[in-house]
Amino acid sequence: MNETKGPLTGIKVFDLTRVLAGPTCVQMLADLGADVVKIEKPGSGDDTRGFAPPFMPGTQESAYFVGVNRNKRSVTLDISKPEGQAIALDLIAQSDILCENFKVGALAKYGLGYEQLRGKFPSLVYCSITGFGQTGPYAPRPGYDSLVQAMGGVMSLTGQPDGEPQKVGIPIADLFAGLYGCIGVLAALRHRDATGEGQQIDIGMLDTHCAWLANQGMNYLATGENPPRLGNQHPNIVPYQVFATADGFMVLSIGNDPTFKRFCENFGLEHLLADERFATNAARVGNRQLVTDTLTPVIAAKPTAEWISRLEALKIGCGPINTLAEVFADPHVQAREVVVQMPHAATPDGVRVVANPVRLSATPPQYRLPPPTLGQHTEEVLRERLGYDHRRLETLRASGII
């Protein structure tokens, strides 16, 4: 392994996660230097290995799996069998962190639940990510991203006012749960380093979903009224929305009254400043439809590129609505090196992955290991960590344990 130091170099993670929320959490830890052993079921592995097409070019590796599993070593291990459980315990004994996203109580039948491990490994940081958390009436239920988006309220806020509720176009409930899980792990590591005491991090996707309702959640708590769906408009700022241009669409983001004044003065709309319905953001929010109807023909008179050029010169928030092809071709995205090329065991051409967005000046994220093929590191890890010889490994493989 590359010995370049990261902030979590020396930290060992026993990874029992799969699909997206858990692997997102663990990949963040891995990018920061943690040594991650990802445990996968022999023969099939992480469910997302089968979430394809698309495959990475020239391979049979799922693009979904590749996106959240770099910097991990894959070990195939059947934890449903006693010998597999014994190997798991030996690996956990050497680990600082265990991350899992099984259903509540599911790992207990393998002797790997938190209550079973805390006495044996009192310094272990144990992160559990589930749909609804470890307690409460919904705790036994399975959690799925679209289900949590529905139950967590964001779908009621997303979509056109006269249309059906819409989910966000990426699995954002999974992703936020993973990121909150990572924050919890880092806090628990800090506590362990200070006290020697491990603990369980209990992440429920519905909890984290409620947490990131942000201003809309607070709008409800402040008024007791359900915020309406507003399509592409902002609930608290106007104009802050999508407008049609002469040749497409753009986002106009006018975040305060001085910016609205500057907009009006530069585009022949000075008369609006004398109209009390437009004078303040609060007034514009109260007259949302009037503001939208007034500005719609103005924006539609010029092409997107002209609007972007003129508005940027005036330091007024704006932007095109890019396709993903346009996103990854954007000169700023390229200058920030948002895409990283990594080698891969399945292809001499390697694979492209999206970079870690956390920019640390002294200990930046690392790209030590490409996303693994299934069981790629089983023998390496068992030799390195547990001292197994060739005969022991062959016996385990013959019996289906690894």
User: How is the biggest beta sheet arranged?
Assistant: 6 strands, parallel
Strand content: 5-15%
Radius of gyration equals 25 Å
Specify the number of helices: 17
Structural class: alpha/beta
Q: Domains counted in the coordinates: how many?
A: 2
* Strand/helix succession: EHEHEHEHEHHHEHHEEHHHHEHHEEHH
Quaternary organisation = single chain
Order of adjacent strands in the largest pleated sheet:
3-2-1-4-5-6
Lay out the secondary structure.
Blueprint: E1 12-16, H1 21-31, E2 35-40, H2 63-67, E3 72-76, H3 82-93, E4 97-100, H4 114-117, E5 125-130, H5 145-151, H6 154-157, H7 172-195, E6 199-204, H8 205-211, H9 214-223, E7 240-244, E8 249-253, H10 257-266, H11 281-286, H12 288-300, H13 304-313, E9 317-320, H14 324-329, H15 331-335, E10 339-344, E11 347-354, H16 378-386, H17 390-398
Parallel strand pairs: 1-2, 1-4, 2-3, 4-5, 5-6
Antiparallel strand pairs: 7-8, 8-9, 10-11
Helix pairs in contact: 1-7, 7-8
